[in-house]
Amino acid sequence: MATVRGCNMPDDLLYDVENHIWFREEGDGNVKLGMTTVATAMAGQLVAFTPKKVGRAVQAGKSCATVESGKWVGPAKSAAGGEIVAVNDDVVNKPSLANEDPYGAGWLVIIKPEDWPAVKATLTPGAAVAGPYEAKMAADGFAGCACTP
Predict the structure, then answer these.
(1) Which helix (H) or strand (E) holds 93?
(2) What are phi and psi of 52, to 5 degrees?
(3) Contact between 14 and 120 (Cβ < 8 Å)
(4) Where does residue 10 fall: left (phi above 0), alpha (psi -120 to 50 degrees), or beta otherwise?
(5) What is the pLDDT of residues 37-82, one digit of tens each?
(6) What pLDDT score does 149 carry?
(7) How many helices (H) and strands (E) does the chain have?
(8) How far apart are CA 109 and CA 78, in angstroms?
(9) Per-residue DSSP letters for 112-142?
(10) What dihedral do alpha carbons 41, 43, 48, 53 form, nearest 10°?
């Protein structure tokens, strides 16, 4: 597992570094996505999570959910377009779960992606994510995660 400035980045995931989103292939053609530890550290404690509803379409590069913390409200952008097939109701009911366990119980949505091979080629594999994330954090002036989950 890569650790960049105290932020954990599991090797088995694919990353959209620019938008601080991770992707995990589910084996059934769907992909699960969530926020990285960098995203949750930058946002602070989440207080609301409003995903698009199951069955709704998501356009590539557009929001699949809105997340809100005490200091930030914004979109969780999916690099992959497709259909929402599941939302994490546990995070809807307890948004801080995304802070507590961002790579496990704190996932956001599962989508049935369109043209996944093309999207996958644009994502950074976990084993290679340290360099790009270090550069992104430096460019954003982000010191790092206070603690690692």
Answers:
(1) helix 89-93
(2) -65, 155
(3) yes
(4) beta
(5) 999 999 999 999 999 999 999 999 999 999 999 888 999 999 999 9
(6) 43
(7) 5, 12
(8) 10
(9) EESSHHHHHTTSEEGGG-HHHHHHHHHHHT-
(10) -90
- Which strand (E) or helix (H) includes residue 82? strand 82-87
Q: What structural domains and CATH numbers belong to the chain?
A: 20-119 (2.40.50.100)
AA identity, residue 101: D
Task: Indicate the burial class of 146 (C-beta count within 10 angstroms; 0-12, 13-18, 19 or more).
Answer: exposed
| End-to-end Cα spacing for the chain | 12
- Give Dmax (Cα) for the chain: 38
d(CA 122, CA 112): 17
